[in-house]
UniProtKB/TrEMBL annotation:
Coiled coil: none annotated. Belongs to the SUA5 family. InterPro entries: DHBP_synth_RibB-like_a/b_dom (IPR017945), Sua5-like_dom (IPR006070), Sua5/YwlC_C (IPR038385), Sua5_C (IPR005145), T(6)A37_SUA5 (IPR010923), TC-AMP_synthase_SUA5 (IPR050156). Gene3D superfamilies: DHBP synthase (3.90.870.10), Threonylcarbamoyl-AMP synthase, C-terminal domain (3.40.50.11030). Signal peptide: none annotated. It catalyses: L-threonine + hydrogencarbonate + ATP = L-threonylcarbamoyladenylate + diphosphate + H2O. It holds the Pfam family Sua5_yciO_yrdC. It comes from Candidatus Pandoraea novymonadis. Keywords: ATP-binding, Cytoplasm, Nucleotide-binding, Nucleotidyltransferase, Transferase, tRNA processing. It is found in: Cytoplasm. This is Threonylcarbamoyl-AMP synthase. Residues 4-199 form the YrdC-like domain.
Length: 351
């Protein structure tokens, strides 16, 4: 059971310039003092993250976002009032006194106030011990490009055996949402959705009175925010997105001794009379909220099962599933140029 003493100790580690992995409502973050250059550098080094990829600064509920930006737009204030604390990140113009290290050298900075009680307690203790408008830079606590962690054990597994990496893990239990925050960019003169998440495009539009634009994923070939690469959130096991008919076609010609994982809706799985012994099947939940909560834990579980590949049924292409579709398409993009060996006929490969 996590205690106040545990949380305060973790805060002292942050003040000392060390790294602390902590739970949020979305995923576990790998945290360091956002205004300590060595701590920020240690985050990038531990993750193997390119230095031109920004990190998100996490603020306590009492924190002043205006400290981090040269001008807090009225639109930013409306979104903060509506969704903070919660799973919404805002990209705003970076104040001159804020280091470019946390923004990947760009003129913007990402800010978020998490709703998880452990994250809030840690941030409050950190601010109290350090003083001022302190914030914690905290990208997801995993190696760059890999599946995000939604439990403390995922973090331990991710960094186990890495030399020169010391991370204090604050176990706040499983993350309730399970995918990363929605990112809205307000630094360009118009609102833009950079990453879908639990806070939907429609909800943001209702607050702003306009629908955020959907620009290209990169500005000047540099990511504007976290998770913007085409290939991201990837398991080690090759993952292929197929429709129901393609999955059934693959299963009908499935060769012996080729263990595969099939993640599909119950209606699809019910059309298979007998699954081969080396097929591990998982029935998809019918709601995006349930799948978001389970997705990363499922991918990590399948990674430990020594499967040749994961066949994942394509989700409905509607707004309710947008956030999970975003994560799955990026996860599968890692393997678009890889032939899934002899398991899938050439005509069935998603291109």
């Amino acid at each position: 059971m996590l205690t106040k003493v545990d949380i305060e100790y973790a805060a002292t580690r942050l003040v000392a310039g060390e790294l602390v992995a902590f739970s949020t409502e979305t995923v576990y973050g790998l945290g360091g003092d956002a205004e300590c250059p060595s701590a920020v550098a240690a985050i990038y080094a531990a993750k193997g993250r390119p230095t031109d990829h920004p990190v998100i600064v996490h603020l306590s509920p009492e924190g002043d976002p205006a400290y981090w930006t040269d001008y807090l737009l009225p639109s930013a204030r409306r979104l903060i009032d509506a969704f903070w604390p919660g799973p919404l990140t805002l990209i705003v113009k970076r104040a001159p006194h804020i280091s470019m290290a946390i923004s990947g050298g760009q003129d913007s900075v990402g800010l978020r106030c998490p709703s998880h009680p452990v994250a809030q307690a840690l941030l409050r203790d950190f601010v109290r011990l350090k003083g001022g408008q302190a914030g914690v830079a905290a990208p997801s606590a995993n190696r760059f490009g890999r599946v995000s962690p939604t439990s403390a054990q995922h973090v331990r597994d991710e960094f186990h055996g890495m030399t020169g990496v010391t991370i204090h893990v604050l176990d706040g239990g499983a993350c309730s949402i399970g995918i990363e925050s929605t990112i809205i960019d307000l630094s360009r003169g118009f609102p833009a959705l950079l990453r879908p998440g639990h806070v939907t495009l429609e909800e943001v539009a209702n607050v702003l009175g306009e629908i955020p634009q959907l620009p290209g994923q990169e500005i000047g070939n540099v990511p504007r925010a976290s998770g913007m690469l085409k290939a991201h959130y990837s398991p080690r096991t090759p993952l292929f997105l197929l429709n129901a008919e393609e999955i059934l076609s693959v299963l009908s010609v499935h060769p012996a001794n080729a263990p595969m994982a099939v993640v599909a809706f119950p209606a699809t799985l019910s059309k298979v009379s007998v699954l081969p012994a080396d097929i591990f099947s998982v029935a998809l939940p019918h709601t995006p909220t349930m799948l978001a909560n389970q997705l990363y834990a499922l991918l990590r579980r399948l990674d430990h099962m020594d499967m040749s590949c994961i066949l994942f049924e394509a989700l409905p292409d509607i707004s309710d599933w947008a956030a999970i579709n975003d994560r799955l398409r990026r996860a599968a993009a890692t393997f678009l140029n890889i032939e899934p060996l002899h398991l899938i006929a050439k005509d069935n490969i998603i291109r």
